[in-house]
Amino acid sequence: MSGAGHEDGDWEKHEGYGPRGPDDGAGDSDGDGKGPEPGTAGRAGDGSPRIPLPRSSVEDTGLPLPAPEPPAPAAPLVPLVLEHDVLRSLLGAWALAACAPEETLAVEEHLGECGACADEARRLREAVELLQRPEPLDLDPTLRTRVLESCLDRRPPRIPVPEWAAPYDAETARLDALLQDFGDSEWHAPVRLRWFEDDEQTTRRTTVAGVIAHLLSVDGLVAVALGLDDPVTGGQGTPVAPNPASRTEAYWRASYFPPTRSVRVPWREQSHGIVRHVSFAVGSTSRAGEAERGGGSGKLPISYGDFELPLRDAMLDRAFECWVHAGDIADAVDYPYEPPAPRHLHGMIDLAARMLPEALAARRLAGLAAPNRTTRHLVPAGEPGRSLRLEIEGSGGGEWLISLDSPAALASSAHEVAHVALDGVEFCQLAAGHVSPEEAAAGQDGDREAIRDVLFAAASLSRM
Amino acid sequence: MPKTDTPPRWDRKMQQRLARGEAAALGELYDRFASLVHGLAHRVLADEQAADRITREVFAHVWQHPDAYDPKQGPLRSWVATLTHRLAVQRLRQKETAALVHSDPDSPDAPDNAYAGPTGSPGSMEELERRVRRASVAARADYIVTSMPAPLRAALELAYFQRRDYRQTAADLGVTEAEARRRLRLGLQLLSTAHDTGTPGAPPEHGGAV
Fold it and tell me: What ranges does the record list as Basic and acidic residues composition bias (chain A) (predicted)?
């Protein structure tokens, strides 16, 4: 944005229909950064008067002429002799103060003689003022939900977006808004992806564009299950690479050059396509057929390679990943980024809490969580077993009972052996592998080993 | 926003999906046009909350009356801009008229602290019309700038914001000097049409600036 112009540039002393009116704050003067330096022009002088003579002007106001300048290395300007067509073609540049001084002079001479050009010149000068625009405001990200909800209240949709897809819809829109004004330097800003593997913090270097490519590749697992093209292979059919990390690596490897901003369009189109297709999976008339395949209630299984999630949970997982990586991107470019809306955050926490018993079992199987044989009680499936109460504070929080000894056991407050309290965002950072289980700020009470196992299991939910 | 579909095709499909009652289409419509709508409304009303309200009204209108848009008459984008402009100017006029009435000392319902409008004293009907016209021209100019052909916008951007002269502009864009002069002049000519519509509150030209 240009600020108020200086009125003391060498060429600004000219009277008349100069490139800038007296109260024109637009553009800048020729004498200040634009066109040849006065000093440079001076060397071309031939001994005639240093100060250009005041000229009669189409807007002659009769004001006193400027006082004679002290000797300065300014050169006389001899108006160029230019043809009418050339002069007319210069009007835009002239209005923007983007001509060489000789040309400016020639145009202004001409404006005194040619009414048509003078009219156009005035119009174009007025147009220049309109270029001064306020900085575009960042849209409040919560406005989207408010606007859409008020629309849907007034006319209920025949094909709604399922409740469980709303977090994904909102988070992808939020991330896209963040990317809106990114230039090349932001797209190529380094980002370190972080997650927990074998109880160790693991990292992988990439860029902002690389993160979007990662989201595109892994969202592709859902896209393919819904019958959309696979972004990794570019065609329809089963995903080439079975799990999120290998899909991402395959996508990154597929091009010799690292990903650029051009990855935004396919990512956004795919995320819009996913939201659209899950809506049809629920709302279409072939409800019976969809229900058979499990699409109708969001039960369609989505394979992540080594595990599966039903569609509705996969959509929550993708919303969670979108938020987490949007946070990585925002950190990389030093932008603020807020947590999701409370009810969306609640759904994400709920998914993690529901996945904990399986994660605990997997860790036990891998020998990472050695159960104390004296305290562990195997109970028949469906019977109440030892449980941990997970209390999540803050908006989107709540309480969950985590079955400790078997995913098949029923969590029960009567069998509560430990209690952990965490802030909602802190818990999500833990589940994203961004905070280590040892460092997570958690209030703890009860069986220390159970607590440790649950915190490590939460971190083990993270992946690339 | 991302565009791979040619606009007319995207516009037509969008209208069909909205008419069918697809909530996902409404989300996509918002994602493509929200910043245009909010920006124009804010330019006219100079108030964040008022711009939020207009944004809500515009999308509600499109959602409730998808058939009001005729793809044959021009792009959806300019139809949405026209609608926004109309609603925002309407709102500005209501607000300022109300301020005029309340600030009239003879008015029975004039409050003690008369509302003075966003830009100073409420003044007369004439002043109101001037204000509406100014807001209207500014909003039209914003729209023209955002929808003019990219080569023209790039040239204006360089000459005005980067303060390049037209020769430097030509070099930056990799075009001849004559072409740079042509683009600057044409860009300003387009922009100057923002002043054209005499009646304040009239929409930007349908079909965009070109």
Answer: 1-23
